[in-house]
Amino acid sequence: MVSPLNGVPTLGKPNRNGFASSILAWLGGSKNVTGQRTFEGYRVHTEKTLDIDRFPEACQNAPTALIRCDNYTEEWTTASYHGVLPREVDLESVCDKGCAQAISDWRSAVDTYCGNATWHNGAAAGVLGSFVSQGINETCQTDKSGNYCNDIINKFTVVNSIDKMPTNELCSDCYVGRLKMMQASPFSYYNRNSFFKSALKQAVKQPSEPAFCLSEVTYTTKAGDTCDSLATKYSVSSAAIIMGNPGIINCTNIVEGVDICLPLQCKTFTLEKDDSCMTVAAATGLDQGDICSLNPWVHPLCNNLQDGTQTLGQVIFITPPGGKYKHDVNTTNSDLTYSEYAGKAVSPPSGATLADKTIKDCGRWYTVQKGDNCAIVLVQYHISLPLFIQANPSVSEGNCTTNLVPGRTYCVGPTKEAFAAKPQPVPPFHRFGCFAGEADTKNRTVLTLAEAQHVKPMSITACQSFCL
């Protein structure tokens, strides 16, 4: 059997109809001619192209090489949208594989011989070929069935705006694929017309995250609801309701059927028409700063309290939303600031054998079991490795697990006092170590020579403690 140049061979043996086999072999498919098309070709640059002499000789030859492609593609040297071709243009010729290969070879040659060389306007030497290649890619785009996408898109419903496009057309493989193809290339018209950006954004929407409600309490508004009525009913601030729910536009006339997230509860105060920060402070025991911090919309000078009620309602916070923060560290045997430490020392378990050099000023003990490792011990007792090593010097940082001895007891909660500096005894001193004069001193120095040359003179610390 005879097959097209560079085509897949079609063998006669598997075919019952030899004549049909011959036809298939020669056509190679309904959209291809025998072998590859022969194009006269064109040049996007000639030796007369302005500024081409700025390039090295080898680079000058590459851009002026003949591109054997359908001559219609010669016009695609600028960015444009490539839709359905005019009737007189042979689409199969434009989309011939040989045409695409020719422009690809031209671009490769220019890249090889010109490297980073640019024209006077800063464009790369092969920029025109890149525009042509983009035009071929858009024009010859097909769907999964092999149909040209331009023919499919051309039959789309005519609409006034992108948001009115039928979903099946907007999200079709051809339309989304075209927009993505344009977005990916600097040689397309994508960045020159905001329509394409909007279209892609509409077609490929980002998945939305589920609405977050801190209080986990939601409510569907009913007829007659206001921010004040809801605030009073649920013990929340009216301002927090409207600020936390964009679906509420008017606090005094809430639309029915809106799903809202209720704020965290607190103690509230309902403002009267003549209330000021001073009267609120007197009634609640708060100062002006507390009122402003609990209700951020209130100006630091507290001069907009009544003005704000017109849009934000009359119910304000007088305690922190959700209540005051409670520290959950165990205060029985831990220090609030240093939770790794025990509050007081306790004796080791009865019969315990302490690990070598383990401290005794410890409030929590652990006897290592077979199979234990440092990670288990540290996590279970919430103690850091450096502190564990400090309390148990027989354990080292690099070999913590290896150093653990099953059956030995280790400190897992030292007291802070365990590492505090121990008081040192006052060194021997004598009274005249202090530079104190005496009433009966007559014409003699405060210190005698023997006293000044004492082998253990008083220290500064001792002097401060005992003489001053």
From TrEMBL:
LysM domain span: 217-262, 364-412
Position of the signal peptide: none
TM stretches of this protein: none
Lineage top rank: taxon: Eukaryota
InterPro entries reported for this sequence: LysM, LysM1-like
Entry's Gene Ontology molecular function annotations: chitin binding
PROSITE patterns: LYSM
Similarity section: Belongs to the secreted LysM effector family.
Name of this chain's protein: LysM domain-containing protein
